[in-house]
Backbone:
């Protein structure tokens, strides 16, 4: 089977063999329901408890603050809708560059009477300090700002933003899905600064799809999205997906082990990639901001990103034209629109997100192939004009 070089780790990562090995027994002989009282159930409960500890250690949190969900989208919805349900209709502020699983529930709350503020960003994708200060004067009840952007990789100073929001009494949430395994994460420090909840997801860090967590300060009251048997401290009812949760825990343990080396190695590869991209006229989005070490988002003027992605795929390189969850949308990225990037340039956006399996040789081959593809496309464009 044709297998392109994989350069799309912000969309998802492959399950690490160590993680898969940890998961496999829980699909077969260890098949118990973690709520059952017999030996099979007790073994499953112990496995879930151990995974909760592993996730907590990777997040700098206490195990009792970890609420397992089916994915980052559910965790983000749980916080926003769950917090809103405990309060009178008020003001809600979210970053303009948030993932759709924050923006869409925020818009749902707006239709229910909440006053929604979309926090402006600067040209690099950072929250605009002046605009943020103005919104805080409205004393929002809930603020949601992601730690690291899934498209640009731009990192927000969440601790400072949360500290400013804390003075208004706002509940502050951060989507840290892209940060796990790529940046040090310490919920205890963030919590002291004013962050009350944080979302993590397994499949962005070499774990399985279908497992994530909302890390939440236990003093925060939420209404559950899913009512039932009272699982996860009553915040997320439903029989636990034990294999996926075990895999999440194993992935978090791996992330902790690799954190000393992975960011440095990935940062070196990114620097090599971006040096090559700049040599033939690429525009880097968010290049002046602090970014995830594995993420490059660029455009080549006058070239369509979707066309480029398709040609690169056929040439043996899997990259993205934006967020995977939005790839079916023909409109330019909402992230780039918020950054003030022109629609014509934004339509050319291509994201490369690196991971454990990539190396210098792959980067060099990608640059050669990209340059050849660009020459072909520009020749065709010239012939049709």
Residues:
């Amino acid at each position: 089977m044709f297998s392109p070089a994989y350069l799309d780790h912000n969309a998802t990562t492959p399950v690490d063999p160590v993680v898969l090995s940890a998961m496999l027994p829980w699909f077969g002989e260890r098949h118990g329901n973690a709520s059952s009282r017999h030996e099979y159930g007790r073994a499953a409960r112990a496995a879930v408890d151990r995974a909760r500890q592993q996730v907590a250690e990777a997040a700098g949190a206490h195990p009792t603050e970890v609420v397992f969900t089916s994915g980052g989208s559910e965790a983000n919805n749980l916080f926003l809708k769950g917090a809103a349900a405990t309060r009178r209709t008020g003001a809600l502020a979210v970053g303009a560059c948030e993932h759709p699983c924050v923006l869409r529930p925020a818009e749902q709350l707006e239709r229910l009477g909440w006053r929604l503020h979309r926090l402006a960003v600067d040209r690099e994708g950072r929250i605009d300090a002046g605009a943020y200060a103005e919104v805080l004067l409205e004393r929002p009840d809930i603020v949601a700002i992601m730690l690291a952007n899934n498209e640009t990789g731009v990192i927000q100073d969440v601790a400072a933003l949360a500290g400013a929001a804390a003075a208004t009494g706002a509940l502050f949430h951060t989507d840290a899905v892209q940060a796990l395994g790529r940046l040090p994460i310490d919920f205890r420090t963030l919590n002291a600064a004013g962050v009350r909840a944080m979302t993590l997801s397994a499949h962005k860090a070499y774990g399985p799809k279908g497992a994530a967590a909302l890390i939440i300060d236990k003093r925060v009251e939420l209404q559950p999205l899913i009512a039932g048997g009272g699982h996860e401290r009553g915040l997320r009812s439903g029989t636990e997906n034990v294999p996926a949760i075990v895999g999440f825990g194993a992935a978090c343990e791996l992330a902790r082990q690799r954190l000393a080396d992975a960011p440095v190695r990935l940062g070196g590869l990114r620097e090599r990639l971006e040096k090559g991209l700049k040599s033939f006229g690429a525009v880097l989005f968010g290049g002046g901001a602090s970014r995830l070490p594995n993420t490059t988002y660029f455009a080549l003027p006058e070239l369509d990103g979707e066309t480029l992605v398709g040609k690169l795929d056929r040439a043996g390189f899997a990259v993205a034209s934006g967020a995977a969850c939005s790839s079916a949308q023909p409109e330019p990225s909402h992230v780039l629109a918020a950054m003030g990037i022109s629609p014509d340039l934004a339509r050319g956006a291509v994201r490369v997100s690196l991971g454990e399996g990539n190396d210098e040789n792959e980067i060099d081959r990608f640059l050669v192939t990209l340059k050849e593809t660009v020459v072909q496309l520009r020749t065709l464009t010239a012939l049709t004009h």
